[in-house]
Amino acid sequence: MGTDSDLETNRTTVQPHKMSAGRYFATRFSTLKPPLHKLPHPIRLLRLLNGQQWLFFLVGFLGWTWDAFDFFTVSLTLSNLAATFHRSNADISWGITLVLMMRSVGSITFGIAADRYGRKWPYIANMVLFIILELATGFCNTYEQFLGVRAVYGIAMGGLYGNAAATALEDCPAAARGIVSGMLQQGYAFGYLLATVFARALVNTTPHEWRPLYWFGACPPVLLIIFRYCLPETQAYRERELVRNATGNLTSTFISEGKVALRRHWKLLTYMVLLMAGFNFMSHGSQDLYPTMLTNEYSFTANQVTVTQVLANLGSMIGGTITGFISQSLGRRFSIIGICIVGGALLYPYTFVSNSGINAAAFFEQFCVQGAWGVIPIHLMELSPGSFRTFVVGTSYQLGNLVSSASSTIEATIGQRFPLPAEKTAEGTTIARYNYGIVICIFMGCVFAYVILLTFLGPEYLGRDFRVENDEDMQVVAKADAMGVLHHGRGADEDSDIAEKTPESLEEKI
User: Fold this and answer.
1) Residue 72: its H or E element
2) Which of 18-27, 125-134, 197-206 reaches the highest mean pLDDT?
3) Which terminus of the chain has fewer CB atoms gathered within 10 Å of its CB, N or C?
4) Which of 364, 356, 373 is nearest to 300 (CA)?
5) What integer pLDDT is reported at residue 54 of this predicted model?
6) Which residues are within 8 A (CB) of 144 and not within 5 positions of it... i.e. 6 or more apart?
């Protein structure tokens, strides 16, 4: 079964499906103790990645960046869309909600495809759909068309996260996973930053109002399709495919892997969905309605909103990278809990400061929010069953999105219960104003508490080996001779390269 000491020093020693409930919960405090692994200089860690691993990271990062860019275009043009379609901000926010609700459909569909057929073509299919649907959004003329296109868009967006994480991380050297995970997750913040900048440059600067932002969003995926087409499958996926082929029936083996994973890990999968619901409430609850709060409640100009959003996203990128890096030493759970406590303490200035001082609060609040998120890609990868990494990472994330899909609508609707004095524009138009700050503050306080509790109760497999020969589920499904084909299927150089990726050899190398 293992001792508390075992759990403290190697968090992959005892897995939840092998423990009684009482034993598991008794170890939540002891396993939270930081392992305090020595942290080499970040540059040394990044130098462990070879050229192909960097390309895998880059294509995953850029795909995730554009996923975020396309998502936040609606948040940043909420008032413009409301004016065009003659609807309230709360009505337009359903365009955000529908995307979040439908993303789980995409994660299931594309996740299973990526685990069965490889990472490359599902990624390319995602990008093709991005192009078509982003163009379609820019040509919508009615509210109903807008909602319909965004709902379908959610399916396309949902398929990308698990694929991007698997592509970027499953071949990554173990010692570098923390910092690479933090860097990968900041594709989300970088996408938000790009959306903010291009919204300022393209929205209301032409007779087409908000539409050029969406038309522009359809262009970069063309380059990402070419980029991904030029790269092979990851080494981890190719090894798994080698074992499946050696069994004599690839499809049957894949289905058997799914049955074993579901039977042994269904509790873990449920936990991951609940955890990701909290994380998605945390990001969307702190971000989606924030530009509206700045303009509607505090009367910020477009330039002021841009400055605040840019600083917030710089904080996000720095926080996610740093927290992901230190999670390699402090542990995934301890890092998440610690940064969430700090984020909760910063909620008041983040939502109640009405002058330029809010820029500092926005920087540090998003440092914390995305700091916690910086740990998530590798934390989910280490928790996931090896055969269904793309499916489990993507689906847990997107089902969490589904649970939290009404975040902005909830905040916008509750905000209408806290009216402020109306404001008249220079043209004489009356604008209804609401106290969105108090709603975001209370909402986020509850979310931080929930994430801290779930993280405390959950498992952690820091440093888990991703190689197929160490996958217990695959060993149950595949015969010994099928597993043995791995050594014969690799060349001597590949065996040497894989050996260099183990934690022990990496520590010696550093």
Assistant:
1) helix 51-76
2) 125-134
3) N
4) 356
5) 96
6) none
